[in-house]
Amino acid sequence: MAGAADSALLREYELSDDDFQRIRRLVRERLGIALAQSKRELVYGRLSRRLRALKMRDFASYLKCVEDRNGDELQHFCNAITTNLTSFFRESHHFDFLARLMPALERRNANCRRLRFWSAGCSTGEEAYSIAMVVQQHTCHLRDWNIRVLATDIDTNVLAHARRGHYHADRLEKMDPERVRRWFESTGDERQFVVREELRQLVSFKTLNLIDSWPMKGPIDVIFCRNVVIYFDREIQRQIVARMASLQRIDDHLIVGHSESLLHVSKQYRLVGDTIHRRIDA
Questions:
Q1: pLDDT score recorded for residue 6
Q2: Looking at 46, 148, 171, 182, which residue is catalytic?
C-alpha cells in the first residue's frame, strides 16, 4: 500500500474518486460504454494529456469544461477514451468468408446492381480498406454497379488518419506482398505507403456515435462490427444489434469480434461460422 501511495504522490494531477465517477458517468452518457473501475489508470494516462495540453491544474476543472458541452473538448474527451486496436486483415477468416460470399452477393443483387458494406468502429481504416480490397478483387468486372464501403468511428483523429490512407511499412509487413503491390504506392519515403486512389474512392469515412441517430439507409449486405459492442452493457448491445438488423435483409451477414457473442443479445441472427452471423426471420 505504501508503494501505491508513493506513486500517487508523484502524479502530476490527482484523480479523485469523485472525478473518476464523473468520468464514468460522462462515458456512459456520451458513448454508452460501461467503464470498469479497473480502467482508472488507463483513463488517467489518456486524459492527463488533455489537462496538460489545455494547461489545466486539475481534473475537476477539465470535467466542468467537458460537462458544459464544449463541443471541441467533448470530442477530444471521446477520442481519448475510445480504444483503437486494428490491423490489415485482422482475423483473416472473416475476409476469407467475405471472398467466398461475393459471387452469391453478385447473383442476389443483379437486378439492383448495388452492394453495401459497413465497417462499424473502423479506427484508422485498416479494416475498411481490407474489406475494399476483397470487394474490389471480386467486383472489378461490375463496371456499372453502385458499390460502396461505409466506414464509421466516433474518434475524429483516427478517421482523419484513415482518410489520408498513409501507413508505415510495419503495418503492411504481414500482408500478402501481391496485395501490397496492387493497392499501395510509395510516398517517396521507402518506409511510408499510401492506399491507391482507386481503392480509396470505394470507401466513405464518416463520424458516427453508435448510440446516437444513424443517417444511413439499408440494405447493407455485410456489416463488420468487431470488438465494438463488447464495450457496451447488455441492453445497449441489444439496441445496437437490433438497429443493425433493421438495415439488413434476410440472409445478409453481421460479423463480430473473436471475443463477442450474440447469445442473449439478438434472436435476429444465426451463427453460421466463427463469429459470423446470418440475418434470419425472427
A1: 40
A2: 46
